[in-house]
Specification:
The chain is mainly beta. It has two helices and twelve strands.
Length: about 180
């Protein structure tokens, strides 16, 4: 749901890039989130094997992200330990995506289908959350790897249940 970019100030505040359309609800003061690794995996306490929880104590938007505080992170030294970590929320605690929408983590493994011919193009193998939006990386059935922006210009429709994305590839994208 978010990725900690850097500490802000000396009181333990953190600048977070949010990855949700509902940051005010997901990161509302008093909500718990789970600590993720730098790779986005759930971090567990090595002694108890339980996920590590954080409780949001404050949230406010800033020019280039969101500024958050968490219980127990009270100074810059502690805040610096969190650089690059992901903040996770159990899927069952999220609002269901509306029709034609999907959680970003569900994109991996979805089939890309040509919007004109309905032929299978390939499978999404990764996605990147860039300042310009999501970028899908996919592997074709011939084994080639290519990327496609996940924007209306190229994405015709998305069927979450069928796990397909109907796309219009730019001319020459797969020529090599």
């Amino acid at each position: 749901m978010g990725r900690i970019r850097r500490p802000h100030g000396v009181r333990g505040e953190l600048v977070v890039d949010v990855m949700t359309d509902e940051p005010g609800a997901i990161f509302a003061p008093g909500r718990r989130v789970f600590q993720g690794t730098h790779d986005g995996e759930l971090s567990v306490d090595p002694r108890t094997r339980a996920p590590r929880e954080l409780v949001v104590s404050s949230l406010r938007p800033i020019k280039d992200g969101w500024l958050m505080r968490f219980d127990g992170i009270n100074d810059r030294t502690e805040a610096e330990k969190w650089n690059g970590r992901y903040l996770l929320v159990p899927v069952e605690e999220l609002s269901e995506p509306e029709e034609g929408e999907v959680f970003a983590h569900e994109l991996v493994g979805m089939q890309l289908v040509d919007a004109g011919s309905s032929a299978t193009i390939g499978e999404v193998i990764e996605f990147y959350d860039l300042p310009q939006g999501l970028l899908l990386e996919f592997r074709t059935s011939a084994g080639a790897v290519a990327s496609l922006p996940f924007v209306d210009e190229f994405v015709d429709a998305l069927d979450r249940e069928a796990r397909t994305i109907r796309v219009r590839l730019p001319n020459g994208l797969l020529d090599a």
